[in-house]
Each structure stands twice: as C-alpha cells, then as structure tokens.
Design brief:
The complex is a heterodimer. By secondary structure, chain A is mainly alpha-helical. Chain A is built from 19 helices and no strands. By secondary structure, chain B is α+β, with helices and mostly antiparallel strands. In chain B, strands 3-2-4 form a 3-stranded antiparallel β-sheet, with helices on one face. Chain B has a two-stranded antiparallel sheet with strand order 1-5. In chain B, a hairpin with a 5-residue loop joins β2 and β3. The chains are: A mainly alpha, B alpha+beta. At the A-B interface, α1, α10 and α12 of A face α1 and α2 of B.
Chain lengths: ~425, ~120
Amino acid sequence: MTDLAWIDAALTSARPRAVSTLLRYFRDLDTAEEAFQDACLRALQHWPQNGPPRDPAAWLIFVGRNIAIDAARRRGKQETLPAEDVISDLSDAEAEVAEQIDGSDYRDDILRLLFICCHPELPATQQIAVALRIVSGLSVKQIARAFLVSESAMEQRITRAKSSMAAADVAFETPGAVERAERRAAVATMVYLVFNEGYSAQGAAAAARAPLCDEAIRLARLLLRLFPGEPEIMGLMALLLLQHARSSARFDTDGAIVLLEDQDRSLWNREMIAEGLALIDKAMRHKRRGPYQLQAAIAALHARAAQPEETDWAQIDLLYAALERLQPSPVITLNRAVAVAKVRGPAAALAMIEPLAPRLSGYFHFFGVKGALLLQLGRAREARIAFDQAIALANTAAEAAHIRMQLDRLIKDNGPGGDAEARRH
Amino acid sequence: MLYAILCYDSEDVVGSWSKQEEDAVMAKLSVVQEKLAKQGRLGPVARLMPTTAATTVRKAREPVVLDGPFAETKEQLLGFYIVDCASLDEAIETAQDLARASSTAGAYEIRPLLLFRPGAGAA
C-alpha cells in the first residue's frame, strides 16, 4: 500500500476517537471537527517523513487540540503567532497523551458523538447524513450522491441538522448506567437506519447507496468494540453482516429482484456469513434475547441452508413468534406467515394474515404475500386481485416488475407460484 | 526448527481498507506464501476473525468466560491450538478443560478463524 493510502486509512479509522475526544475538550462540534481537519493536514506533512505514530488517534487529538487552543488564543489577542513552531517534539507528547486517555474515556466520548447524531427531533435521513459526515467522515459529495440530492442541498441539510444538534445540549458528564444504555439503544437504531438506507435501495440508487451498508457495519463494529459484552450489539452486527452477505445475489443483471429462494447461493459472501454466525452464537449464550438477535438468528438460519429446501422453517416460525411477543407489529406477523405457510401450509398462513388487512391496507408486501398464498391455494382470481393491489402500492419499478412476473406466471400456467418471506431477498 | 510467525496490525486500519486495498494486500502476501509452499516450508496459515468475535476464558479455580479479546499486557503469547468445534459453547468447554489442566494464571482467547489453509510442508 502506498504511504498516502495508509495515511488515509489511518485517518479514517482514527476519526471517531479523535473527533469525539476533541468534542469533549471543546464542547462544540464545529471546533472539534475543524481541529481534527487541521490535525489531519499536519499528519499529511509529518507522517510520510517521520513514519506513522504509534497511536494515530492520540497524535491527532494532541495536535488538533493544540492547534485549536492556539487559534482561540490568537483570536483573543488579535495578533498573529507563528503557526509552525506550536508543536515541538511531537513523538514524546503523543506517548503522554496516549497514557492519559484510557479506554473508558474513549468509550463514553465516542458514544456521545454517535448519540448526538441521533437527536430525536432530527428526521431519520438527517440523522444518517450527519452520522456519515461527522462520525464516518464521508464527504458531503459522497453523502449527496448516496441520497440522490445535489451537493448544496445536502450541505444545507447537514448545516441545519448541526444547528439543532448544537441546541440540544447533550450532557458532557460521564453518563450513568441507565443513560448509557439509552444512548446505546438510540445509536444502535441509527446504525440500523444507515444500513437500511443502503440495503433497501433498488435500481439505479442501489449502487450509489451500497457504501452505506459498509459504513453501517463499520459503525456497528465500533459500537461492539465499545460494548463487547452486549448481546444486542452482537446481534445488530451479526444481522448487518448476514444481510449484507447476500448483496451480490439480491438483484439480477437487469436490476430485477431475485427472491431469497431463487438466489445463487454461491454468490453469498462466506466470510461475512462466518463472522455473522460466530457473533450470533456468542450473543445467544447470554440468554438475553432482543429484536436484533432474533432477526439475526432468522437470517442465520437462511445463511446456514445450502439449498432453499434445507431451510429450517419451523425454527424460523418460532423465532418470528418470539419477535412478535417482543415487538408486536403486523409486519412481523406477515413475515411469520411466510414461515407458517412452509410449515403448516398456505391456508394456515392466509388465516394468520387476513386479520392484518385493515392495518396493512397500504403495504405493498401484504398484497404480494397474500397473492402468493392465494395462488398456492389455487384461488387464481383472488390472487390476481391481490397482485393488482400490490402493483398499485409498489414503491419501486423493481417491486412492480417482480409482481408482474408472478402475474404472468399465473396467467401462463395457473399453477403454484413462488413465495418468500414478505420482503426478504 | 519450526517457527510461528504471528501477524500484528491495527484492526481499525485493516478494517477500513476498501475491497480493492484488501485484495491488493492479499495478492502480495500470497506471492510470498506460494514461494514458501513450493519449497515445502509452509505449514498452516490462518486469518482470525476480528477481535469483536472473540471470547476469553480466564483461568481461575472455575474458569471465567468473558466477552471480547484478551487485553492484558502483563502476559505473553505462549502458544496456540486450532480445534474443530461444532459451536462456540464447545470451543469454550475445550478452553475450560485446558484451563483446568493448567491452573496457573493467564487466559485462553477464543477466536473463530476466517480462513484456514492446512498447508502441506513443514510437518
């Protein structure tokens, strides 16, 4: 790897630790970010000659803090000072700082930085944009591309979000256990949102948003490193890995949706699956189930099946039942119905989803699943009505095309059609 | 004499490599590995999963299981085993058996393998 690529990777990975510690010093996000930027520029000058420091984050914190303090002093005195001689003998100072900032400080600092991005008054898309900008360090241009908006629109959005965050007044004291747990849960949700933003994209947006999945996995890993004993964070990380592992198989070359059972499983990323399975294994030992763990456990059962026929649907049904108890939601029941159809047949599944109709009358996947079940039961006329409703509610061209394909099949042979868990692909 | 060569690097940095960077590094390393293999000198090669997948069994009268990697610096790496286990529970049981058999201080860190090549040479 070239020097520059190495430095770039080191700066990226040091960013959450460095920015979050600088935020604690200065209690102002703009100052912290600016200090980090200045320190990065200094790193680009120093590191190629002097070699990388032992602890890049500590180096950046130390240098960034000095530059910012110096700048403030200069502003105070209204006079200019020489810029280059501020930092003398960096390597010794860096070692000292590394000693001073121990792991537990980092943990609360990074959690605070992540938590600030989850300000409840910010709409989800803004939380995501801000987290990608501040924590992951993506450029405004990169984020704008992912959200399919212009750079200036994204710049405005982030600026606006930052001013509501500055007004939010997040406590800088070390959080108590309850507050820490609350922050952790909010941050986990935000990380999941970042992932979904990438994962749910289809068509032209899919390629532009794919990096969001990688960023979310990096954020989840960061969170897991801060809380190595939290089963829900292990579950979150496992869930993201197991879902993302399928990404190359989820769409065909024309961008059409390929359902789970039709996917070429040799395209699944085995390394991600292996890590996801190891993590869910680890989480389950704690016997403190949560929604992320249950979803990851379901994804794990799909990942373990070498062929679709080998899928353990009975176990998936049980896991969805547990998820329903934990988080009652018609969408979860709908997903469970797909497993029920496999285990107890389409009639049982249809009976299960019929009561959901009033609550899911605007939900594309409801009619997609309903149509598929009716088709299996040989009720072709009703199936067609359900598929037509699904098409009318489709969110994307790919979704509509997928249902049309099932309709074509229905018209052609009137035989049983494929089904799949409501939206799993 | 057989030598183990242990790889240390910043997980943060390695984890932030792009797919292209990762592939480039691995391609360079495999050139070296192939040379060793041709000479019949290459034993097992393993790449570990990230430390976030680690579990640690601390030796004590009844060994304690902790999430996360082995973090102490006052102990040194003295050796390692590669064991085939059906589950993490089985791996932990195995480590606990070892811990009971050698009731000194220390710990066993359990890390799932991401990649394993048994290697033909260096037997």
